[in-house]
Design goal:
The protein has three domains: 29-48 and 67-153, Immunoglobulin-like (Sandwich); 163-249, Immunoglobulin-like (Sandwich); 252-404, L,D-transpeptidase catalytic domain-like (Beta Barrel). Helix content is 4%, strand content 35%. A five-stranded mixed sheet has the order 2-23-24-25-26. Strands 21-20-19-27-22 form a five-stranded mixed sheet, with no helix packed on it. It is mainly β and 419 residues long. It has helices at residues 190-194, 371-377, 409-414; strands spanning 12-13, 33-34, 68-72, 87-91, 94-102, 111-113, 119-122, 131-139, 145-153, 163-166, 172-173, 179-183, 186-187, 197-201, 208-211, 216-220, 230-237, 240-248, 252-257, 262-267, 270-276, 289-292, 295-303, 319-328, 335-339, 357-360, 384-388. The relative contact order is 0.18. Strand 20 (262-267) and strand 21 (270-276) form a beta hairpin. It comes from Streptomyces thermocoprophilus.
């Protein structure tokens, strides 16, 4: 299961504790990773894994790999000690590939695979206040693919995280990426906290903060960031100023038209590609609105029960172990992802999903010529995906994922505690 939202505690926080409030970490995964049956004991708060594509035929249950990969500590774990055990194990199969990467620097951590291929461990202790992404792949005795993913964050020197910043310091993101702070504790004096955070852009765009609730403060300009600009986040922490910066890459805005069943990808104002898609069915239409890619996963398990979709016998409406090329668009579970089980005639012709946007793909996702692989390889965290002409009548909540741009600017500014 993919998780990423901060686990929240309910004790009051004010400017008086801001000295330990802002540690620059990240909220969600940014790499080309896989996910599956990781140990969730480290901080799973129950965020859904997404709506898989509903099609006339789905992958047969008996074809699923018997191999079960377990990552310890589990996905979303925080305050991991630098000497705490980190391990990847597999039952009923063997590991074929494990990578552990420090997300901010991209440095891969060396590790050792056991002789029998059933376990992997890093070769050295971890660094403090660092976010790591672990991606593991394996297979069972019949060669059927299995995958698992976990993202963990090690403890800070002060051993306390009261706030988390996304995106991370030093990253490059798309033009739709807001600056997002998630606070573990309820903020009662919002003006005091916000006054110690300044967000600016080299483009000169005015940037304003907006409180979605007592735990979340986002910053953005009126329109998307200017491509190639640098965003600077300055935080006064315990009387000492800390700075984080991230770069805005090229502008890429992809528009999904649920009526024509095509997606047009526009980069830096020029049409790059048109891709046939299959979006939400009449029963489960895709949200209309501006969404932002917040996570990328090479493979992800999608189970209908995680979003309340079950059949009469209580079984999930779908359960697909390794959906390829999956990119999260909302916290509630909307993804744009590869679909290898749908007939080619579906794409560009019929809307068949439970709310996601499906692109043609192959099992395993290892054909780079397929539309899903192309879009995955040509997308980055922070890119905008706009859905229009869907039959959905429910307004997409701006706080659902990174959907901030769906809020009018006047309302956005009204939600600031200092402007």
């Amino acid at each position: 299961m993919i998780t990423g939202r901060i686990r929240r505690t309910r004790r009051a926080a004010t400017a008086g504790v801001l000295g330990s409030l802002l540690t620059v970490t990240v909220l969600a995964g940014t790499g080309h990773a896989a996910t599956g049956d990781s140990d969730a004991s480290g901080g799973n708060d129950g965020r859904t894994t997404g709506e898989a594509q509903a099609v006339p035929t789905r992958p047969a249950t008996e074809e699923e790999s018997r191999a079960r990969i377990r990552i310890t500590p589990g996905d979303g774990a925080r305050q991991v000690g630098i000497s705490d055990p980190v391990k990847v194990t597999v039952s009923d199969g063997r590991l074929t590939r494990v990578t552990m990467t420090a997300v901010a620097s991209g440095t891969e951590i060396a590790g050792t695979l056991s002789a029998d291929g059933t376990s992997w461990t890093p070769d050295s202790p971890l660094q403090r206040a660092t976010r790591y992404q672990i991606a593991a792949e394996g297979e069972d005795a019949e060669g059927r693919f299995a995958a698992a993913n976990a993202t963990i964050t090690t403890t800070s020197p002060a051993n306390e995280f009261l706030g988390h910043l996304f995106p991370e310091d030093g990253s490059t993101v798309g033009v739709g990426m807001p600056v997002r702070f998630d606070f573990n504790s309820s903020i009662t004096d919002k003006a005091a906290v916000q006054s110690q955070i300044k967000v600016s852009s080299s483009s000169g765009q005015k940037v304003v903060g907006h409180w979605f609730d007592d735990h979340r403060l986002d910053f953005r300009p009126e329109s998307y960031w200017k491509a190639g600009s640098t965003v600077t986040v300055e935080m006064t922490v315990g009387g000492v100023q800390q700075t984080a910066t991230f770069t805005i890459g090229r502008s890429q805005i992809s528009t999904v038209d649920a009526k024509t069943k095509k997606m047009t990808v526009v980069r830096d104002g020029k049409k790059l590609k048109t891709i046939p898609i299959s979006s939400g069915s009449a029963e489960h239409p895709t949200y209309n609105g501006q969404m932002v890619i917040s996570e990328k996963y090479g493979h992800i398990r999608m189970n209908g029960a995680s979003v309340g979709l079950t059949e009469k016998d209580g079984k999930p409406a779908y359960d697909i172990a390794a959906v390829p090329h999956a990119m999260r668009l909302t916290d509630s579970g909307t993804f744009i992802h590869g679909n290898y089980w749908g007939a080619p005639s579906v794409f560009g012709k019929v809307n068949t999903s439970h709310g996601c946007v499906g692109l043609q793909d192959v099992r395993g996702g290892d054909d780079s010529t397929r539309p899903a692989a192309w879009f995955f390889d040509n997308s980055m965290i922070g890119d905008v995906v706009v859905v229009k002409n869907s039959q959905d009548k429910t307004a997409l909540a701006p706080a659902n994922g990174l959907s901030d741009w769906n809020m009018p600017w006047s309302q956005w500014v009204a939600g600031s505690a200092t402007d």
